[in-house]
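Notes continue from the previous slide.

Worked example: a multi-chain complex. Inputs as given:
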Amino acid sequence: MKHKQKQKKKKKSHIPLRMNILFFAVFLLFSILILRLGVLQIVQGEEYTNQVEQKDEISVDYSVPRGEIYDRNYQKVVYNIPQKAITYTPSKNPQPDDLLDVSKKLGQIIQMTDADKEKVTERDKKDIWLLENKNGDSLITKEEKEMLKDKKLSDSDIYQMKLDRITEEQLKSVDINVASIYRKLFNAVALTPTIVKNADVTDEEFAYISENLADLPGVNITTDWDRKKTYDTALSTVLGNWSQGLPAEQLEYYESKGYNLNDRVGVSYIEELYEDVLRGTKSKVKTVTDKNNNVVDTKVISEGQSGKDLVLTVDMDLQVEVEKIIEEEIQKMKEYPNTDTLDRAFVVVMNPKTGEVLTLAGKQYTGNKKTPWYDYAHGTFTSAYESGSAVKGATVLTGYQTGVISPGDQLLDEVFNIKGTQVISSYKVMGWIDDLTALERSSNVYMWKVAIAIMDGHYVSGQALPLNTDKIDLIRYYFSQFGLGTKTGIGFSEEIEGLKGAADVNAFQIGIGQLDTYTPLQLAQYVSTIANGGYRMQPLLVKEIRNPDVNDNALGSTIIEEMQPKVLNRIDMKSEWIEHVQEGFWRVTHGSQGTARSFFVNEPYDAAGKTGTAQSYKDGKSTYNLSFVGYAPFDDPEIAISVIVPNAYYGSNQPYSISNVISQRVFRKYFELKEKRQNNDLENDEAENNTEETDTEENLQE
Amino acid sequence: MENQKKVPDRFDWTLAFIIFLLFIVSIIAISSAQTSGQYEINFVKMQIFWYGVGAFIIAGSLLFDPDQYKKLTWILYGFGIFLLVALIFAPTSIAEPRNGAKSWFTFGPASIQPSEFMKTFLILAISRVIADHHQKFLTKTLKTDGWLLLKIGITTLVPLALILEQPDLGTGLVIIAITAGMVLVSGISWKIILPTFSVVAILGVTIISIMIYFPEFLKDHIDVYQYGRIYSWLDPYSYSSNEGYHLISSLQAIGSGEIFGKGYLGKEVYVMERHTDFVFSVIAEEFGFIGASLVISLFFLLIYHLIKIALESNTQFNAYICAGIISMTTFHVFQNIGMTIQVLPITGIPLPFISYGGSSLMGNMFAMGVIFSIRFYHKRYMFSTDKE
């Protein structure tokens, strides 16, 4: 027993102490918890309370008006019309009930357009009916609800049953105006302002909503912009188009650049090429809301800026007149027989010294009664044609440069008889002629002989004509120095270089523009290069980029960027050779045997140029393209033009010199407009002087 | 036997009252938590039902006296191990993994987590190992102490390995905590305890430090999941995993409760698993620092009561049981509350008596049942000893 007690004593010796140590450890651990709680709830409590109460920061982008486009005389070409608009910005997680509530309130204030109302589907109405009638509970029997519970029916089965059971009669209770609003709200992207109505918003609607904004969560009034072209169809394709909302196929690209789904974006030509300039910067507004979605604070993070304005080099008055000339002349030509292949013509007017494009006109006759003319302005660089003898200036200069002829060299214009091919010739056998006469009278044989010589050929009548066709690349290289067969540098990705013909036995036809095809813009660049003494200028369409004014509807006053003329290259040929060819061009329009003499010899503006006729094919017919390149005045060229009328006629007789007539009228129109503007300026000056005079008279009378 | 006190007097009413208070707290917290509408089940009703079941478990526990528990110890321990082994081999139809851990037997709507009971079985087993050891070796030397530590270690390692296999790190940590507490109380010499605990502590700190500063080093040995757990604990704002978000929402809920709380049902922050593992965030948000401290104090009161019982108990076996249950409860409370306030990383451990959950509650109630039994049969031993 004693022993046992001893043992017990021993037991008690360690347990109480160890127990107390354990208890102390527990006490320490619990103290840590209380301490930490104190820090969290007392020291940092307010901080966390703030975090909980103002959790939501919503950042909304507001779109700004797109930049406007002006012509070189600062006349509006593409502009914005401000429109009153009603927008809706859904919350992060919009509930259908709330959307319907807003729709109903809005429906009492605004009337949607008929077009919007027509878009309401039966399904839309059914969805709304369900929302209004306790989710259509009455349409489902008790048994079916039991089946849903037992998972014999799915939720979607039940929903479909409800949709099927709504009667026409029941749907009549759905207001079509409310339904059309609900559609718009339902399809809006969260946190992105979406336009509910922007056409024909009346002043009453606008005023009423602005007074009741508090009752209409998410609804706002703002200004939207409708974009219009002043000159209707003139130049319209090159001005380009814009989309309402991002184009679906490039969604990711635009979203990565910070666009919203419903943003406008330029999708073709100038609108697309200058998208970054025209789009502007959105204004960003951050709204802090508390847990009940009350707005606590609104911060403007960035002001945003309207898109910048573009000033084109194009003279829209001239553009419109030139387009009219094209239409009239095509109509006139089509009165003649054998012209049913004719449907289009192009005119490019450039300043040869700066490369500024004054007119970029293309018109295609569609035969439609409603819209007989398609604006084919972009065809001046997206379509190419055999241009015929118009390129002979480049041929002669290439001849000089390669050393096969020298200025003044005579060659025999004879009937060309190459073994194994048809007999060919100029339109008239001219005998021994020099280079200037060859240009004046448009000798084919002279040019062929030049091209053949470059390709190491030697023409002997009746024999085969072997050619080193590799050397055609040399000819193409020199031609490309003028812009022929290469990109002109206008900047559009759609621009083409034209087709290169096969370098076979007929390779020498390149010398008369009968092998490769060239775009009207290339021809204009080529003739500009000859006119300005050998500089290939980049064609400019945009002259200035301007910052928008405070008043969004006027031309911006500050110029951000002024495009400078850009020399792409200087041709390799000597200046005196170029002057020699210029003389040849002058003789085309003035020489006694000049092919365009009758059209220009009596004109006051002293033009020089080169005519062209090329064989082509269309609709299985052997047709002729008619072309003209030229510039005026000869001594100090202000404009260079290219005119090409593809497939103008077929058969042996040219019924009407459409390309020369168009050229003559374009020159006349240009100088007529110039004179008119000078007179206007004078009159204005005089008018100003007159007012000053009357002022002094009045003073005197006093 | 005439001196034998009447049954109502032998019953530990204090302990019962503390458990009743915890029951009230549990019902208030769960009834508020379930209004966030995560689930459609009425957890309050279920929790009342489980408390009912718990009352029966306690009543059942009273049928046996501590001596009988001592005799049953190895049977219960074996039964627990059998269940854990069975879990590994059970088909998923009756042991469906939850959150990737195979810890539950599921029979229709009822499910049970054997590890919840294993904890108490282990406490009994270790208590018996220590008590038997001390009976056998009357004079203790460093050698006998080392021998005891080894025996305790083996007894622990079997269930620990099985639980980590599930894998259930949370319960594994509880097992380790229980063992540590009991080793402390077992009377093993400080010369063994201090170095052992130090080595374990240094090892733990080293592993966690390596995970933080040299993550590549242990990549092959430690799950990416465990890395995420550590990172989201230390910096939840930049480590935006689910757990990071979970912790942030819990901190916001508790922090914004401030001193006085937002009142019953006044909670504003959405926290996941609010009726189970994050039930403390409801209490702290709605009843503030004062309410939260009161609940912690309530647990402290429970521990204090258990310490008192341990000190008053007349057998070593009973004292060790108390020490084990104290360690278990303390670790549960500290880990659960700690993870909601960024003191410890998040692990799936419920708050005893308060979190919703049948298995956890039944496990705890069984543990309390053993305590009730100790108290219930306590006096009689005292008298008998006196009579001797």
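Summary box: Chain A has a mean pLDDT of 87. The longest helix of chain A spans residues 658-701.
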